[in-house]
Design a protein that fits this description.
With 513 residues, the protein is of the alpha/beta class. The protein has 2 domains: 230 residues, no CATH class; 259 residues, Carbon-nitrogen hydrolase (Nitrilase/N-carbamoyl-D-aminoacid amidohydrolase, 4-Layer Sandwich). The chain is 45% helix and 14% strand. It has 18 helices and 12 strands. The strands form 2 sheets. It has a 6-stranded mixed beta sheet with strand order 5-4-3-2-1-12. The radius of gyration is 24 Å and the shape is elongated. Pfam families: CN_hydrolase, LNT_N. Belongs to the CN hydrolase family. Apolipoprotein N-acyltransferase subfamily. Its EC number is 2.3.1.269. Catalyzes the phospholipid dependent N-acylation of the N-terminal cysteine of apolipoprotein, the last step in lipoprotein maturation. Keywords: Acyltransferase, Cell membrane, Membrane, Transferase, Transmembrane, Transmembrane helix.
Length: 513
């Protein structure tokens, strides 16, 4: 028997609304840069207790909780729209709120599904809720181009024992474990008998203990190769980045950094050179390539380039290791971004009017294509991803299987001093865990960093400064269980079947009564 008396026993819903608002506003502290991972299960447990206590208002309350939580977690969007792109606040703030208003539908759907499966409250909490929450987050990571930021699993990366579920079936399994611990804490608050409390404590302890055990496993292993990698952070302000008058300054900054750098591999950030590769002055790429070659360095450069037809353009990283000036017009080995950002990299339908108000060049890229091969730089096969792509683990699996090293190149200057770059680094940590390889990150303004295969940050450059982060990394080989599965789809299918079985069980119990 579950009791809803005690801490939340108020007849007026005002107390419930208060708890929902406060806990939602606290959710950013569970993620980077604060990383209070233990806070997320507590906040979600409080949300669940209120939803159980105030059932007539539960869907409205959960929607508002999620709306506020996603709004404060995604406020960096307003930084990009207002501070950088130049939209007035009366347009940028409503546009910022649109995404949280959409994302909040998924937690609300989760609670609705829990109500439709009419099992006793504790069973709904422990069995139905974690499955439903994980599945709805799985869907939102794919629907309408997908958006995985704010998934509760990321709050556990990488200090929490629950992070070790990532190599098994991706961030979705970490989300499930986090939701289950949250549900166990909620059930502990709601129930009265001591033996039930003991069961709920045991469930939470078991999930955490299994995570700790998984964390002792090594799913991949070093292949014996090492490379000194230089990650360049030019710190070019976004207001200058696409200004033609600042082009010479940008080129000189990165050329000087390349010339002074002694490393096996040198990596420049996303669109480090803010001009189409085919439109560069004659001899410029040759200067970069020959300078790197004199230093015995393989050079990878972030730069936009036209497609072979010349009608569209790509957000690319090019490999200048074997650049031949006599064949400068031929395509270079490259990786081109495939998972594009709405508004930032392609124009959704009926949004042309917005671009008349925004200072946003190159807002209509083309997709690079799935499963692009790693680039060979020195003795490493590097699977690149660009900016937002490290939010999508499934997209990186195919290329990572053939790689020894992962690399993300980004330009986070769009988001100023917000926490966007901290959150993205946390997602890179998740990808390193899932794929069992070092992740090296070269960014324009931050956070340039190195993450080891266990998801720990081993080197970090100060943000908003010009830096060359020099590190020695090991190449890795082998596959994690997640890579063997190939994606999160097998887990989603299993969870869907389990949810259907629970629904059938609930229906059968209803007929018996």
């Amino acid at each position: 028997m579950v009791s809803t008396q005690g801490l939340f026993a108020r007849t007026s819903p005002v107390w419930g609304w208060f708890v929902m608002v406060v806990t939602a506003l606290l959710t950013p502290f569970a993620y980077a840069p604060y990383r209070l991972y233990w806070l997320m299960p507590i906040l979600m447990a409080a949300m669940l207790v209120v939803a159980v206590k105030y059932q007539p208002y539960r869907l409205r309350m959960v929607y508002v909780w999620a709306l506020l939580a996603y709004f404060v977690q995604c406020y960096w969007i307003n930084t990009a729209l207002h501070d950088i792109a130049g939209l007035p606040l009366y347009i940028s703030i409503p546009l910022t709120a649109l995404l949280p208003a959409y994302l909040a539908l998924y937690p609300t759907l989760t609670i609705w599904l829990c109500e439709k499966i009419r099992l006793p409250v504790v069973w709904r909490l422990l069995l139905v809720f974690p499955l439903a929450w994980t599945l709805t987050e799985f869907i939102r990571e794919r629907a309408l181009t997908g958006f995985g930021w704010g998934a509760i699993g990321y709050s556990q990366i990488a200090a929490s024992p629950l992070a070790a579920y990532a190599p098994i079936s991706g961030i979705a399994l970490v989300t499930w474990a986090t939701a289950l611990v949250s549900a166990a804490v909620a059930a502990l608050i709601l129930c009265k008998p001591w033996w039930q409390k003991a069961v709920h404590i045991a469930v939470a302890v078991l999930v955490i203990a299994v995570g700790w055990g998984l964390g002792q496993q090594q799913w991949t292993h070093a292949d014996g190769s090492t490379a000194k990698v230089a990650l360049l952070q030019g710190n070019i302000e976004q207001s200058m980045k696409w200004d033609p008058e600042a082009f010479q300054h940008t080129i000189q900054t990165y050329y000087d950094m390349v010339a002074k750098t002694q490393a096996d591999i040198v990596i420049l950030p996303e669109t480090a050179i803010p001009v189409m590769r085919q439109d560069l002055p004659d001899g410029l790429l040759e200067q970069f390539a020959s300078t790197a070659k004199r230093n015995n360095a393989a050079l990878a450069m972030g730069i936009p380039q036209y497609t072979p037809t010349g009608r569209q353009y790509l957000n690319s990283v090019i490999n200048l290791s074997d650049f031949d000036p006599e064949q400068a017009d031929k395509p270079l080995p490259s990786y081109s971004k495939d998972h594009l950002v709405p508004f930032g990299e392609f124009k959704p339908v009926f949004t042309d009017w917005l671009y008349g108000l925004m200072h946003m060049p190159l807002a209509d890229f083309s997709e690079g294509g799935n499963g692009q091969a790693p680039l060979q730089l020195a003795n490493q096969r590097i699977a690149f991803n660009i900016c937002y792509e490290d939010s999508f683990g499934d997209d990186l699996v195919a290329s990572a299987k053939d790689s020894t090293l992962l690399s993300n190149i980004s330009n986070m200057a769009w988001y100023g001093s917000s926490h966007a770059m901290d959150l993205q680094l946390q997602q890179s940590q998740a990808r390193a865990l899932e794929l069992g390889r070092y992740m090296v990150r070269s960014t324009n303004t931050g956070l340039t960093a190195v993450v080891d295969p266990q998801g720990h940050i081993t080197a970090l450059a100060p943000r908003d400064t010009e830096q060359v982060l020099m590190v020695e990394v090991q190449g890795y080989q082998g596959l994690t269980p997640y890579m063997h599965l190939g994606s999160t789809w097998p887990l989603a299918i299993v969870f869907s079947v389990l949810l259907l079985l629970l629904y059938a069980w609930a229906r059968r119990l209803q007929y018996r009564h």
